Structure formats: C-alpha cells, structure tokens
Amino acid sequence: MSPIVTAILVACNLGLIFLLLTAPLGLRTVRFSRLVAADRRRLWQALWPLGSDAGWSGEILSAEALDDQGAARIVLSWEGRDGQPIERKVLLEDVFEESRFSMRVVDDTSLDASFWADYRTTTELMPEGKFTRVILSQTDRYRGIAFPIFRYFAMRRELGKLDAWARTGRYRKGGWFEHPLSQIGFAVLSAFILWPFFGLNLGGLALAAILTSVVALHELGHMAAFRLMGHRKVRMIFIPLLGGIAIGGRPYDSRFEVAFVALMGAGFSAFLVPLLIAASAFASGEGHRLAAALLATLAGCAALFNIANLVPVWKFDGGQVLRQICPGPIALALASFVLLSAFLALGWRAGFSHGFLFVAGAVFAILSLLTMGSAVKPRHELKPIRTFDRFAMAGALLAVFAIHGYGVLWASDRLLGWGLT
Fold first, then answer.
1. What are the TM regions of this chain, as residue ranges (predicted)?
2. Residues 167 and 194 in one domain
3. Which tens digit of pLDDT belongs to each residue from 190-249?
4. What are phi and psi of 255, to 5 degrees?
5. Distances (CA, A) of 406 to 173, 274, 350
6. 173, 196, 215: which is the final residue of a domain?
7. Cβ distance 27 to 149 under 8 Å?
C-alpha cells in the first residue's frame, strides 16, 4: 500500500471516528413516527409505563407510581453489573390521558445521573381512521452522530415490533441487524470496501479478506472473555471499514473485568500467531510456497493488528488495560510512554520508515485526544483491582505484546525474503 493510499485510509478513519464519537452536536431531538394497526386506548396501555400492557415487549418488568406528582419506579429486564434488573426512578410530565406524555430519568441503578441530565422522551398518539399514529421523540445533548443514529433505529425497531404485537398479540425478540447472517454480510462488505486500498487484484482481495478475518478473531477473543466473566449474552457487531465491536450482556463490575476483557482481544490471537508461524514454516518446508505465504501474511496481519490495539490510546485495548492496572496518573503516564516507545521501536526494527512511525505516533495521539473521556460514567465506582491481579494483568500484557511483536518481526523478515513486501 502506497503512502498516499495509507494517508487517505487513516484520514478517512480519523474523520469517521470524530464524526461518530466526538463531534459536538448540542441539544438535539431524534423523532420517528409510524401508523400502528390498533386503537389509541390499547396502545396507550402498552406505551404508558404504568399501563396494563406496559410489559408487552418484556423490557418493563414492573412499574409503580411513587407519588401524585408523576414520580414512578420502573424495573427493567436489562441486567445491571450485579446481574440484577436495572431500576429507574422517572418523572412523568405533560400527561394527557391516551394522547401524550413525556418522561425524564431522575435516577438509575446502572448509570450516573449526569448521563440523564438532558434526556427527555416524549410519546404521542394520534388516531387516523382505524389506525393510530405513534410518534416517539428523544431529546438529549449529543457528541458524535453514532448515538442519535442508534436511538433513531432503536425507536424505528420498537414501533415496528409494537405494530407486530398489536396485530398478532406476540412480541418477537431480536432483529435482522444483529442476526449472524447479517453480520457475516457486513464482514463481507467490509472486505470489499477495503479491497481497492490493497489493489484490485486477487492479492488485494486476499489481503482484505485476511484483515477482515483478523478483526473477527480479535472480537471473538473479547466475546470469550465476556463469557468467562459471567455475561449470559454476548454479541459482535461488525462495522464496515471501522472494524467490529464485541458487546457484553451487562455493565462491567470490576476493574479486573475491564482489563481482562480488553486484553483478551489480542490475547486470543496470541495463541493463534505461533500456530500460524509453525504452519507456515511447515508448508514452506513441504514446498507449498503459496500456502506458506498466505499463512505468513495472516500471522503478520494478526500480529500487527493486535499489537496496534495494545498501543496506550484511551479507547484502545492497551489504554483500557493500563488505566485499570496503573495505581495513579504518574504510573499511567510512565507505562504509556514505555509501551508506545516499545511499539515504535518494534516498527523501526520491522523496517518501517521514520516518517511512517512519526505519522503513526501522531495518529495515536490524535485518536487518544478524540476519544478521551468518551466513556459512559457508571452509577457506582467499579470494584478495585487486587494487587496480585494488577501484576498478573501487567505480566499478561507484556507476554501478549512480546508474542505479537515476534510475529510482526518474523512475518516481515519472511515476506521480505520472499519478495512479497
């Protein structure tokens, strides 16, 4: 890949990350409406939190009024960090029976109150013949377009499922977006989007497919870690061009859990890279040069991708691990400097130019600034990490870095020797 193409790809990713996560949008309202095949009274009982059919979707387990001023307590089916249902205290305002109400979140057992400071949701019901037009709107202060887009499609899905429930009396969980076949389709689309950057030939297609597979294996490592930490539900969402994300079934409970899940993305591949190296060496010894080259490329891409994720950027895996195991800001700054220096030294040893390494360092710094402080604040502080676990995770981080570092050096030397770099 030429330097110009690399610069374009990096610039596109940085621009997308800025737009998705940090671009200041201010106070915005996301709205969606749909005609639903049911009368207004029935839909009111389903959408009003204190209605007789409020549990139609299984989201609300129970709800009760706390006073005559609109305060209510709602128990949700979503799991909190302790595995128990999340509870919210809400304030119901501007209530017009069977027509309209607004709701604000006052307290939440999972998220800090600051998350809900500007949040307000409004539901409106307007009869149109035999149907009812349901209008949902959510107002909040946003940074980045990812969250408003997510809320738009969440409301769209909710009203679609409400319509199906009104017609059949049954609620169907899930949807097409998170279906495994859809995610495979997104992965294939991602590979085809990356293909032109590597050259519109079979070699370029192979590299795009290899990189997409590496991303999928990395996220599988996170999913396995979620399972080991007791999450009953986990899933992977593939985002074309940007990569993928593994999602657990509940909020994090401890700093050790955050560090373990973050490290297992690269940790899972740390078991695969040595096997790929051995398989490539075996194929080469048997005279299967093409197979050996493909295996070496896969090992090199896996090693480079995963070691890049260990760089101490705020939202990268390495940054998350260091923030959990370092006892203070001075230790965090020192550990970040050492890890970034090791990464740049590895790149120099692998044959990357000084200019490329300088640009890489600048990119990582920009990424860290763009994503710093973008995490959602939990209601209560995470459980502290024990001293033994702190040193165990530090040792595991060094081991994973060393394995992938060796993989990068081995692959660069091998592919250079074959004239493939």
1. 6-27, 180-198, 204-222, 234-252, 258-283, 290-308, 328-348, 355-376, 391-411
2. no
3. 888 888 878 888 888 888 899 899 999 999 999 999 999 988 888 888 877 667 888 888
4. -65, -35
5. 45, 9, 10
6. 173
7. no
Q: Nearest 10 degrees: CA dihedral of 366, 368, 370, 372?
A: -160
Average pLDDT rounded to a whole number, residues 22-37: 91
- Region 322-336: mean pLDDT is 89
> What does R_g of the chain's alpha carbons equal in angstroms?
25
In this structure, the number of other CB atoms found within 10 A of the CB of residue 343 comes to: 23
Contact by Cβ (8 Å): 390, 276: no
**Which amino acid is located at 313 in the chain?**
V
In sign, the C-alpha dihedral spanning 136, 142, 148, 151 is: negative
Residue 274's nearest CA partner among 398, 402, 394, 395 is 402
Quick one: tokens of 400? Answer: 């994973």
Residue 397 reports pLDDT greater than 90: yes
Percent of the chain past pLDDT 70, that is, above it, reads 91
Per-residue pLDDT for 14 more than 70?
Answer: no
Beta carbons within 8 Å of 153's beta carbon, 6+ residues apart = 177
Mode of pairing for the β-strands spanning 60-65 and 24-36: unpaired
Whether residues 308 and 161 fall in one domain: no
Closest CA to 31 of 113, 118, 134: 134
- At residue 143, φ and ψ (nearest 5 deg) are -125, 115
Phi/psi of residue 394, nearest 5 degrees: -65, -45
Residue 375 host element (H or E): none
Which sign, positive or negative, has the C-alpha torsion 162, 164, 168, 174?
negative
Residue 316 lies in a domain: yes
- Where residue 109 sits, what CATH number does that domain have? 3.30.530.20
Top-confidence residue, 55 or 2: 55
Mean per-residue pLDDT over the chain, rounded? 87
Instruction: Determine, yes or no, domain membership for 4.
Output: no
- 205 and 112 housed in the same domain: no
Closest-CA residue to 264 (of 226, 302, 207): 226
Helices marked H in 229-288: 255-285
Predicted pLDDT at 401: 95
Distance CA 239, CA 243 (A): 5
pLDDT tens digits, one per residue of 254-284: 999 999 999 999 999 999 999 999 999 899 8
- Structural domain including 148 reads 27-173
Cα distance between residue 328 and residue 345, in whole Å: 26
Structural domain total, the chain: 2
In DSSP terms, which residues pair with 30 in a beta bridge?
A: 138
